[in-house]
Amino acid sequence: MHGEREWNKQQSKQELLTDLMERHGDMVLRIAYTYAKDRARAEDLAQEVFIRCYHSLDSFEERSSYQTWLYRITVNYCKDYVRSWSFRNLIPKSVLPERTDELGSNVMKEVIQNEEKNVLFDQVLKLSIKYREVVILYYYEDLSVDEVASVLDCNSNTVKSRLRRARERLKHLVEGGMIVEE
Fold it and tell me: I need a labelling partner for 113 at 20 to 30 A (CA). Which of 11, 28, 76, 107 fits?
């Protein structure tokens, strides 16, 4: 299972969840951020993904790795969130001033801050979701085309086509142009 230890019945659900959060928490957070484009909301989405994961552990069928299973849960939950009324109609927290009284920074905030500093990543965030998600899964999460297709529940040729179009749009963006989505 791709270096993951299998869940044995002696291991509690809490222990397994803790292990999954340690191994894949950064990945879940990065994916959530690509959808929410807001640090605090991405953290909330990641937390909700792990809550859903916890409730679904008993039904995990081991047809894939835990990592692939978490990708699918994350992508599906984030897509639902983006389609939700609250996402489309509420003021993003990034518009409001950030609190400066928080002491220290946790690992999740550090990961997001590192991603925010990446210029190309900022350009990726300007892509529509269908292009953004394939770029993130393929280039940032190092999934194969077939794995991306499995996570997104689409054809491998669709993934290849979206990757090609995403690269074209990114090239245009990096060169200073604007993109018009289909």
Answer: 76
